[in-house]
Write a structure and sequence with these properties.
Layout (H helix, E strand, L loop, with lengths): L5 E8 L3 E4 H7 L4 H7 L4 E4 L6 H14 L7 E7 L10 H8 L7 E5 L5 H14 L7 E10 L12 E10 L5 E12 L5 E2 L8 E2 L1 H25 L16 E4 L4 H20 L5 H18 L5 H6 L6 H17 L3 E8 L3 E9 L3 H6 L3 H6 L2 E2 L2 H9 L16 E6 L2 E5 L1
Parallel strand pairs: 2-14, 4-5, 4-6, 11-12
Antiparallel strand pairs: 1-7, 1-8, 2-3, 6-7, 8-13, 9-10, 12-13, 15-16
The chain binds acetoacetyl-coenzyme A.
Length: 415
């Protein structure tokens, strides 16, 4: 019998402070339209040292448990991250202790830049689909703090967040098309963070090329399998139009627009047997804009208010989409593209569950964003210049976890 597997519930955590992206532009002497229209950003989360990837992951995981996930049924805990805190001890292990989860579970972290969360989700899904889970559930956490350094080109594309996913045989939020995905990977240096550095290094424009090349390969792989399994039909129009919505990894919102246009153009060129001429390109432009507005834009609000959260970004798009349109999308198939620099990527799909809207409304998305504090650019600069082990200024708010200092080379957490 085919087992249904997917996301049963989700929750997220964001830092308590943010900057308005227009304030950052003005402070850097840049036209604010570059950041708002050129990159598609509105606000950017600012993590203090206490809000590291462990603290964010544990807070998101705790919220998932508060939504009703039964800890005694969890047999698998995997954390996707590229901003881990120890070369040996995984974040999963810290979270297991902080949330007092059972000891009879598999725990590990997955790392491949922003793709690490999807690697964890796929491992959890296949663990359940294979029968190895024997009816148990999996908790998947995606947690990261994105830092590029002050006054760099990457500065307006920072952010931080964690998303917690409960993966099970009751996919109330999103039933995944198990085994129906396309992968693309390559050895490239588009974005990396050498050991010991807090800020990432990036070859920005090249990283966008790598992203689009990976997307082309991964989408083609998914499409070929989807056609073979008759999940989509051959058509004159780009097959991506058969997906109700398409979610992309969102390093900045404009990237999702470029990505969707590239998927469409590749299919149109394939059909035409070569590059489109100027007239065909001019005719495609308004259609691509309309398709972006209906298929992609509804997923971007949350990302535009948080910024890049590396492994968590794709799952923030999912949260944002279902927050906005969960009820109307019930029963419809959506596509998801995960990209991690370096690079690894995967295009996959799933069907939105009938209880998705109800599950997402339980999170209180707006309340979590509204309780954040807006900070000035000097205050943001002060926070980013704090050493990683700066002492906590205040006790963590109710229900949240914070890094509280290192004792005898062991990291401690409070909350
Ligand atoms: N008004 C409106 N738009 C303006 C403008 C203005 N006054 N001035 C510039 N723009 C537009 C530009 O035309 C451009 O838009 P298009 O790409 O559509 O032409 C956009 O604003 C950005 O301008 P630039 O390309 O000149 O910006 P930049 O070179 O300063 O930096 C960046 C952009 C390379 C993305 C940089 O922010 C960066 O390096 N970010 C980090 C890397 C990144 O996010 N890469 C994405 C792919 S890799 C990945 O996805 C993994 C990951 O998470 C890191």
């Amino acid at each position: 019998m085919k087992v249904r597997v997917g996301i049963e519930a989700l929750a997220f955590a964001v830092p308590h402070r943010y900057v308005e992206i227009e304030d950052l532009a003005r402070a850097r002497g840049v036209d604010p339209n570059k950041f708002t229209q050129g990159l598609g950003a509105r606000q950017m989360a600012v993590a203090e040292p206490g809000e590291d990837a462990v603290a964010l992951a544990a807070t998101a995981g705790r919220r998932l448990l508060a939504l009703g996930a039964d800890p005694s049924k969890i047999g698998f805990l995997a954390v996707g991250t590229e901003t881990g805190v120890d070369h040996s001890k995984p974040i999963a292990s810290f979270v297991q202790g902080l949330l007092k989860l059972p000891r009879t579970m598999r725990t590990f972290d997955t790392q491949h830049a922003c793709y690490g969360g999807t690697a964890a989700l796929m491992a959890a899904t296949e663990w359940i689909a294979s029968g190895a889970g024997a009816g148990r559930t999996a908790m998947v956490l995606c947690a990261d703090v994105a830092r590029y350094g002050l006054s760099t080109a990457g500065e307006p594309t920072q952010g931080a967040a964690a998303v917690a996913l409960l993966v099970s045989e009751s996919p109330d939020v999103l039933e995944l098309d198990v085994g129906l995905s396309g992968s693309f990977s390559a050895d490239v240096h588009d974005f990396w963070r050498p050991v010991g550095r807090r800020d990432a290094l990036v070859d920005g424009h090249y990283s966008m090329e790598c992203y689009l090349q990976a997307l082309a390969g991964a989408y083609r792989g998914w499409r070929d399998r989807a056609l073979a399994r008759e999940v989509i039909r051959p058509s004159e129009a780009p097959t991506s139009e058969q997906l109700a919505r398409v979610l992309y990894h969102v390093p900045f919102c404009k990237m999702a627009k470029k990505a969707h246009a590239a998927v469409r153009l590749a299919e149109l060129e394939e059909r035409a047997g070569g590059p489109l001429d100027e007239a065909a390109l001019a005719a495609e432009a308004p259609v691509a804009a309309a398709r972006f507005a209906s298929q992609v834009a509804p997923s971007l609000d949350l990302c535009s208010r948080i910024g890049n959260a590396y492994t968590a970004s794709l799952y923030l798009s999912l949260t944002g989409l279902l927050h906005a349109q969960g009820a109307e999308l019930a029963g419809q198939r959506i596509g998801l593209f995960s990209y991690g620099s370096g690079c690894a990527s995967e295009f996959f799909s799933g069907v939105v569950g009938k209880r998705a809207a109800e599950r997402i409304s339980a999170i209180g998305v707006e309340a979590l964003l509204e309780r954040r504090e807006r900070v000035s650019i000097p205050e943001y600069e002060r926070i980013l210049s704090l050493p990683p082990d700066a002492p906590l200024a205040n006790d963590p708010p109710e229900g949240e976890v914070r890094y509280a200092g290192t004792v005898d080379h062991k990291r401690t957490y409070r909350g």
